[in-house]
């Protein structure tokens, strides 16, 4: 199933110049735009606390997610599609483990982290993250399962961080309420 879906997406590569350009651009630059969005939240956060909270939360989610991704890559080597198969490869890539997709993992960690605090901006960033994931398969660098794993790791980390943060905040409110009484 994974390889079949890979073929459906990657077989489009190299046949439609505009689509090729969009996918190349997405893979190379949308991740940078997401990083700039995170940086923007940090800068605005110097004046507005909620933006700093968003930036710090998202930064933590990004670091933890990437750490988990690197550990998994070190434990489980999965050859990239272009190593094992004849694929449409638009740009050269290293042959490091394909699983999970670091581009996708980082993009979704940022998109999901911001989404939990700012739905409109987060929704746009999540669309960008999805485009990055699709582009990684389109370019022949990852299988769909690699992309799904990147998304899943980011989702799990953001969910657990949010849950932990909510518990801490609830505990802080109780502690303040007891002091006031």
From TrEMBL:
InterPro entries: PAP2/HPO, PAP2/HPO_sf. It comes from the Bacteria. Residues 50-162 form the Phosphatidic acid phosphatase type 2/haloperoxidase domain. Keywords: Membrane, Transmembrane, Transmembrane helix. The chain crosses the membrane at residues 22-44, 56-77, 97-117, 124-141, 147-165. This is Phosphatase PAP2 family protein.
């Amino acid at each position: 199933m994974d390889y079949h879906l890979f073929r459906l997406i990657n077989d489009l590569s190299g046949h439609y110049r505009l689509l090729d350009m969009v996918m190349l651009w997405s893979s190379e630059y949308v991740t940078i735009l997401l990083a700039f969005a995170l940086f923007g939240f940090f800068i605005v956060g110097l004046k507005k606390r909620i933006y700093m909270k968003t930036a710090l939360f998202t930064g933590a989610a990004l670091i933890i997610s990437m750490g988990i991704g690197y550990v998994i890559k070190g434990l489980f080597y999965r050859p990239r599609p272009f190593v094992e198969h004849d694929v449409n490869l638009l740009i050269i890539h290293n042959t490091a483990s394909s699983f999970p997709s670091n581009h996708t993992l980082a993009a979704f960690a940022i998109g999901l982290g911001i989404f939990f605090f700012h739905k409109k901006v987060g929704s746009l960033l999540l669309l960008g993250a999805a485009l990055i994931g699709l582009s990684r398969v389109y370019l022949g660098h990852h299988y769909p399962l690699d992309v799904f794993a990147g998304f899943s790791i980011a989702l799990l980390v953001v969910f657990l961080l949010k849950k932990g943060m909510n518990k801490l905040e609830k505990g802080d409110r109780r502690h303040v309420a007891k002091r006031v009484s």
